[in-house]
Design goal:
SCFA_transpt_AtoE; membrane; transmembrane; 0% strand; 6 helices; transmembrane helix; mainly alpha
């Protein structure tokens, strides 16, 4: 019995992308079909899984946590909010489709605030 495997959102996304590639036979056919189906959003649909993977690598490798720890090492309660904005901007620069530097800073704020000096 295989342990640790399971059906989750990443597996479902991978399966849909894999099936789309196989069933369309060529990348050109896939991109044409996507463009016809969703017009302006085809690039986002194709690129999203890759950039989500980049963010997952940053988190799983510890890079995101290292950046947060480095930030906390010299942040004060007064300077932390601005520094978090800068740090999130740097993390988000790896993703082309983002909501801005503070759009996804919740977890980073919690991590940083737990270790900030007063």
């Amino acid at each position: 019995m295989l342990r640790g495997g399971g059906l989750n959102l990443n597996v479902v996304n991978f399966l849909f992308l894999f099936l789309a590639i196989v069933l369309h036979r060529t990348p050109r056919n896939l991109l044409y079909s996507l463009n016809e189906a969703i017009k302006g959003g085809a690039g986002i649909v194709i690129q999203f899984p890759f950039y989500a993977g980049i963010m997952a690598i940053m988190v799983q490798s510890g890079l995101a946590e290292s950046m947060s720890e480095w930030l906390v090492s010299f942040a004060t309660a007064t300077s932390l909010p601005l520094l978090v904005v800068y740090q999130r901007r740097d993390c988000e620069s790896f993703r082309p489709f983002r909501r801005g530097p503070v759009g996804r800073s919740g977890a980073g704020n919690v991590t940083c605030r737990s270790g900030a000096r007063g």
